[in-house]
Design brief:
The complex is a heterodimer of chains A (501) and B (458). By secondary structure, chain A is an alpha/beta fold. Chain A contains 20 helices and 14 strands. In chain B, β1 and β2 form a beta hairpin. Chain B is globular. Classes of the chains: A alpha/beta (501), B mainly alpha (458).
């Protein structure tokens, strides 16, 4: 679906499940980047899963965003009439090639598979509906996973392969662009790499979290892939074949993106090291941290200075989803409320992404009898809340570089976070010079509500420490995380690549 | 976090899978059972009454009028039979049982209105010279019977066999008792017995339906008005063609100059053709019993098992084995039908001269009867295969087979009349034979591609 069309795009952004339909860290970053670099004309290719999952566009479209198109990967079968077909004789050997590539451990994609032409020979319709394709799936099933429920195997193979054709189709019909920039690996990275291969343009990759890791956690923890054997019957090294298939697939496309990208950007050192560990060429990597608009928060900071007295409010900002471990936050507040009776835990962020988890959280509040201490607000602009709260907190089990922490810092609010992503760098400092500034809050291990509570209590009761941390926070964000730095660097990279090395 | 991985779980086991499983209680074809009861009872009444000479002519008239009512009501209600069974199965699957009664009422309404209209139109051409009373009885019995067939297919669909059986038994006992003991000899009185019996039957069946499907809605036409719930045209036509196919050879014989004769006003019958074929229909009762039992008990169970494995963690090997078991039950069914029906047919063949003597029928008809015996047995096979095809949701194919049956029976029956008396019966015979072979071919293909279709094309 094309929402806005132009054939004259400078930077083509490939957004997977983010901007402009979903609010969140990466989306805000994209929005910020487009607005900040208004010398360039941007285009956005949005890739979603199922169309039902997305509502309206959530952002005001900036003027220099001149092209938007949306695609849905798991909406298959809509492009073709469902009908019985035999499938041509090329199909099986070609499918075997593709399938084996997905199954192999992050092997390099052979050149033929990188070309659009390959997918013209074996089209999606044949893959989805032909008898030959079914026979192939059966054959592979008997060879590799005869003990797995067939329905699971079948849909996994289908779900893994089918998006590839969607992506090829997007690539086939893409508008003119100068460079392609993908803010994640995964399907978006795959499309970015594919575009580079077929149109000979530069490809920039920015990773906020580490996509592959997040996906692995997702898959390993998932209960949507049913265990088909009791644990007790499994040998220790035996993994679930379906989960394995998914992980290998994401490994494969991850590797493809890393190998094809001209530049691999991360937000903080830890992430960069992981990228290198996962196979990124060290010479291509670079760290460009998030940045905040300091002017925007200056007023809030001043207001807070005058106000001096604050309610005991600890605020979590983020989507209500399992990876944010909101239950731990709730427990921590409950524990802290034994000491500070009027402590409040605010949860600011959309609750509709994983309704089931949201309900579990509410249930958790009820079980702990913490109704008077915990409040869910849904989504709210960050500026609206920063003037009233005392502490910002994140309890996630995985993070990239959370912008809310920087924004809170810009307003002089200290943070208490779990030790994930760049949180430690942000709160304690990332290098010697930075560490000298001092702590801007506290770091706790993942899923440790007691320690979280202890830190909340300390900050809320000890005025001196609070003041010190608050000062450090502002100092750090001013020095390292002003968005001007971010814009300047990206401007440089874009210019360099558009003009050609 | 960027990415769409978290949505994977939502598409992993899509809702599409839920549509995999529906118990199709297809029974319209099986409702051949009840109409056999009707044939038997009119023949029975005929035999008893004919012992008194003064009744014999009105008995013939009675039989002919009832045969017309039977044929017309079956054809009239046929568009609703399969489609409504399917609709009910869907509603039950969706747990929307309270929509069943309102749509039942709507269908009955449509049937009654169109039935009255068609029956009156028919009477104005073919019943011009009869009493007004006969026309009234004709029209009202016709709509009652049409309603009964619908009630029937609904109740068969939910497997209320015993209830249906008891209801039929009582109603037909009533018909026979009234008919036998009525002292008046005009045909109208005999017909009234039939009307009373069928009305009782219809109301009993409807009461059971009302009791079983309580609902707050009055009527509901969503099977016409709602796009996604509308009756499937191929099911409508499948049963329409099938029922037309069953009757078309009779119509051809009734209204051909050389074979038909006038019985009452414009209603024709065929002395040569009718009795042998109705007798032959009765002869397939044992085979039908086996077929019915095997389909509804054995095959349905294996079919459910197959789909349960498909939906719930069956390994492919298990799924394929389950399919083999399904095929095996079909084989057993066909084998049993052939053996038991075969033995029965041999017995009938051996005793048919005596049966003809007993029924006062001229031996001249014997060769035709033998052909009909074979044909009806093949028709039983055709019925069985069509039912299985409906189970496998091959409704388009089933529709074409019924269409072939209808057209070929029409053309071939007409041709046999032109060819002369020694060919009578072959038209129907060859027609069912062709349809049966085609249906077997399609069934074979459908079964071969079963997993492919269940997985790839759902």
């Amino acid at each position: 679906m094309i929402i806005k069309k132009s054939d004259n795009v400078d930077i083509l952004l490939v957004c997977e499940g983010t901007f402009p339909y979903i609010k969140g860290g990466v989306s805000s970053w994209i929005y910020q980047l487009i607005n900040g670099l208004n010398d360039f004309k941007f285009g956005v290719v949005f890739i979603g899963g199922n169309p039902k999952e997305y509502g309206e566009i959530k952002y005001k479209i900036p003027e220099n965003l001149i092209h938007i198109e949306t695609h849905f990967l798991f909406d298959f079968g809509v492009d073709y009439k469902k009908e019985k077909i035999e499938g041509n004789k090329d199909l099986v050997p070609k499918m075997r090639e593709l399938h084996y590539w997905f199954r192999k451990h992050g092997d390099v994609l052979n050149d033929e598979l990188k070309k659009i032409d390959f997918y013209n020979k074996i089209d999606e319709k044949q893959f989805l509906y032909s008898k030959k394709s079914f026979d192939f799936i059966k054959e592979e099933y008997y060879k590799n996973a005869p003990d797995v429920p067939f329905i699971d195997y079948f849909w996994t193979v289908r779900n893994i392969h089918s998006p590839i054709w969607k992506i090829v189709n997007i690539a086939k019909n893409i508008v003119n662009f100068k460079i392609v920039h993908s803010p994640s690996t995964g399907y978006a990275g795959f499309l970015g790499a594919f575009l580079k291969e077929n149109y000979k343009k530069k490809f920039i990759l920015t990773e906020h979290g580490i996509y592959l890791m997040e996906r692995k956690i997702d898959i390993m923890l998932s209960n949507w892939i049913e265990e088909y054997k009791l644990n007790i019957l499994k040998s220790s090294n035996e993994t679930n074949y379906i989960k394995e298939l998914w992980i290998r697939f994401f490994q494969g496309i991850n590797k493809f993106a890393y190998e094809t990208a001209d530049k691999i950007i991360s937000l903080y050192n830890g992430a960069r090291n992981t990228q290198i560990l996962l196979g990124a060429d060290i010479n291509k990597t670079e760290v460009i941290p998030n940045g905040v608009n300091m002017e925007k928060f200056e007023n809030i900071y001043k207001k807070r200075k005058q106000k001096k007295e604050f309610k005991n409010v600890v605020t979590f900002v983020g989507r209500v989803v399992p990876i944010k471990d909101i239950k731990t936050f709730i427990t921590a507040i409950k524990i802290a409320s034994q000491t500070i009776n009027d402590i409040e835990g605010w949860i600011i962020g959309p609750t509709d992404e994983d309704k089931e988890y949201y309900n579990e959280c509410i249930e958790h509040v009820r079980t702990l009898n913490a109704e008077k201490n915990i409040k869910f607000f849904g989504f709210k602009p960050i500026e609206e809340i920063l003037s009233d709260i005392s502490i910002i907190t994140l309890t996630s089990i995985s993070e990239g570089m959370p912008l809310v922490i920087l924004e809170a810092f810009a307003a002089g609010i200290p943070a208490v976070c779990t030790n994930v992503g760049s949180c430690s760098e942000l709160i304690y400092g990332k290098n010697e010079e930075d560490i000298k500034i001092g702590k801007a809050g506290e770091i706790t291990p993942v899923a440790n509500p007691t320690l979280l509570a202890k830190n909340y209590i300390e900050l809320l009761t000890d005025k001196n420490i609070y003041e010190k941390y608050s000062k450090n926070a502002l100092e750090r964000v001013k020095r390292y995380y002003d968005e001007k730095k971010l814009f300047d660097r990206y401007k440089e990279i874009y210019k360099q690549y558009i003009q050609g090395d | 976090m960027a990415g769409i991985g978290f949505e994977l779980k939502k598409i992993f086991r899509t809702n599409r899978l839920s549509s995999l499983f529906k118990v199709y209680g297809y029974s319209a074809i099986l409702s051949s059972g009840p109409w056999l009861i009707s044939i038997i009872s009119i023949l029975f009444i005929g035999i008893i009454k004919s012992y008194k000479k003064e009744f014999s002519f009105s008995v013939v008239q009675f039989q002919v009028v009832i045969t017309y009512i039977l044929a017309m009501s079956l054809i009239l209600s046929s568009p609703f039979q399969l489609s409504f069974s399917r609709y009910v199965a869907d509603k039950m699957f969706k747990k929307e049982e309270d929509y069943i009664l309102p749509s039942y009422k709507s269908i009955i309404f449509i049937l009654f209105v169109s039935g009255i209209f068609i029956a009156l139109l028919f009477s104005s051409f073919f019943l011009k010279e009869t009493s007004a009373l006969l026309v009234i009885i004709f029209v009202s019995t016709l709509i009652m019977m049409s309603g009964t067939w619908i009630a029937n297919s609904l109740l068969l669909g939910i497997k209320r066999y015993k209830t249906i059986f008891v209801a039929y038994f009582i109603s037909y006992l009533l018909i026979i008792l009234i008919a036998v003991f009525i002292p008046y000899k005009r045909v109208e009185w005999l017909l009234i017995s039939f009307f009373i019996g069928n009305s009782v039957l219809f109301f009993v069946l409807s009461t059971i339906i009302v009791k079983n499907y309580p609902s707050n809605h009055f009527i509901d036409f969503s099977f016409i008005t709602k796009k996604d719930e509308r009756f499937m045209p191929c099911l409508v036509f499948a049963s329409l063609f099938y029922n037309l196919g069953i009757w078309i050879d009779k119509f051809v014989f009734w209204f051909s100059e050389s074979t038909g004769y006038k019985v009452i006003s414009g209603l024709n019958a065929s002395v040569v053709y009718d009795l042998p074929i109705f007798l032959a229909y009765i002869s397939i009762v044992p085979g039908m019993a086996i077929f019915f039992y095997r389909i509804e008990a054995d095959f349905a169970e294996k079919y459910e098992f197959y789909f349960r494995l498909v939906r719930e963690n069956g390994k492919l090997k298990e799924i394929e084995d389950a399919k083999d078991e399904m095929i095996e039950t079909l084989r057993v069914m066909i084998r049993e039908i052939i053996i038991i029906q075969g033995i029965f047919n041999i017995l009938i063949y051996y005793f048919s001269p005596s049966i003809f003597d007993f029924l006062n029928m001229p031996k001249l008809y014997l060769p035709l009867f033998y052909i009909d015996l074979v044909s009806t047995q093949i028709q039983l096979g055709l019925m069985a295969v069509l039912s299985v095809l409906h189970y496998l949701d091959k409704r388009v194919e089933a529709m074409w087979i019924s269409f072939i049956f209808f057209i070929s029976n029409f053309i071939l029956s007409y041709l046999t009349i032109q060819l002369g008396p020694e060919y009578f019966g072959y038209g129907f015979g060859i027609s069912v034979f062709i349809s049966f072979i085609v249906s077997l071919y399609i069934l074979n293909k459908a079964i071969k591609e079963l997993e492919y279709e269940t997985f790839m094309l759902i």
